[in-house]
Amino acid sequence: MDATQEISRDLLAKAINESHDGVTIADAQEDGQPIIYASAGFEQMTGYAAAEVVGKSYRFLQGDDTGQPEIGIIRNALSRGEGCLVILRNYRKDGTMFWNELSISPVHNADGKLTHYIGIQKDVTARVLLEQHLHQTGLDMATLNRQLNTLVYTDPLVGISNRRRFDEEFAKFFSTAQRTHSELSVLMIDLDRFKLFNQRYGESAGDECLRIVGDCIAKSFSRSSDCAARYGGAQFSVVSFGANIEDLQRHAQQLCAKVRALSIPHGDSPHGIVTISIGGISRVPYRDTSADELIKLAEVALYDSKHRGRDQVRIVN
Ligand SMILES: Cc1cc2nc3c(=O)[nH]c(=O)nc-3n(C[C@H](O)[C@H](O)[C@H](O)COP(=O)(O)O)c2cc1C
Question: Which of 87, 123, 132, 285 would bridge with 289, disulfide CB 3.0–4.6 Å?
Fold first, then answer.
């Protein structure tokens, strides 16, 4: 045996011993497959020292809980000289239960004779308990994921998509538009004199106003090729595919009219009601256009429409 093989053997043994999972080897030729090796991970997981378990069958891990169908599955697999993967209840030295995800594989010598089994023990208690809890509460992982997704991508105050969703959708839309040379539209929408509204009517009225206007914006841009979101504060944003500048202009003006039609009173506005200003850009984003640039141009257009007297639309290309 040369030096490289010695080193790699040593490394292999160390690596096995360092694993957080339990790694054990059993003699396949002895009755009851006694343990001949147990790693530090196994000691840690079960509370038993390797010296205490070597020479014994693993059955001591089952305590009195020997009626589990998984034990029959292991027995059948071993009687055929095969491996198996099961999750069963096992008990630590201190008597506490843990769920053991046990993987057993047969090991053969050069003549193909079954000599050993290798067992990998993984403590999956947290996962099993979570699954049981979800089952009891009628939830499953898919539902939980959906709920989590909604939480992550929804603005908690207004109830429509949040800035995170907008940024992700915008990046997707932008690269598709670049690839397919399609027109991409971005709108920045801001409630006019919202600070004054909040000062006059209080924050909870301000929040309600944001909810009503946000809902109106989201309903106006609800196709699958649109994404309307709360961008931050009293500002909303929309990214949309396939509308030319005239369509976008018309659609944005209709949105201004819809918000006026909500007739939310605003004593500090010359119109006496809540209005919005819109800035936007519609263009095919060629290679020389960056995503940030489009957002900035839409924001500049929004400031422009504010300076021109608010309650209006300014779209550039
Ligand atoms: C390599 C290997 C690892 C094993 N690891 C465990 C274990 O971690 N926990 C356990 O409950 N049983 C384990 N077993 C299974 C038991 O040793 C035994 O095969 C099982 O209880 C079924 O046999 P029985 O009907 O004779 O009890 C392992 C078996 C082998 C071969």
Answer: 285
Q: Rounded to two decimals, what is the model's pTM?
A: 0.57
Enter the tokens of residue 302.
Answer: 């929004």
Going by alpha carbons, the residue nearest to atom 12 of ligand 1 is 58
Q: How far is the CA of 134 from the centre of ligand 1 (A)?
A: 29
Phi-psi region of 292 (alpha: psi -120 to 50; beta: other; left: phi over 0): alpha
Cα separation, 189 vs 251, in Å, equals 13
- Angle, vertex CA 186, rays to CA 185 and CA 190, nearest 5: 145
Q: Is residue 229 part of a domain?
A: yes
Residue 140, in any domain of the structure: no
Is the beta carbon of 57 within 6 A of some atom in ligand 1?
yes
pLDDT, tens digit, 9 for 90 and up, residues 97-124:
999 999 999 999 999 999 999 999 999 9
Confirm if 155 and 165 have CB atoms less than 8 A apart: no
Q: 78 C-alpha vs ligand 1 centroid, how far in Å?
A: 9
> What atom of ligand 1 comes closest to residue 62's alpha carbon?
11
Q: Is the pLDDT of residue 3 over 60?
A: no
Q: What's the rounded Cα separation, in Å, for the pair 211 and 258?
A: 14
Nearest CA to ligand 1 atom 28: 58
Say if residue 11 is in the same domain as residue 79: yes
Residue 105, beta-bridge partner list: 118
Query: Which pLDDT tens digit goes with each residue over 237-295?
Result: 999 987 889 999 999 999 999 999 999 999 999 999 999 999 999 999 988 889 999 99
Strands 313-316 and 276-283: parallel
Is residue 91 in contact with ligand 1, taking CB distance under 6 Å?
Answer: no
The last residue of a domain, from among 76, 104, 131? 131
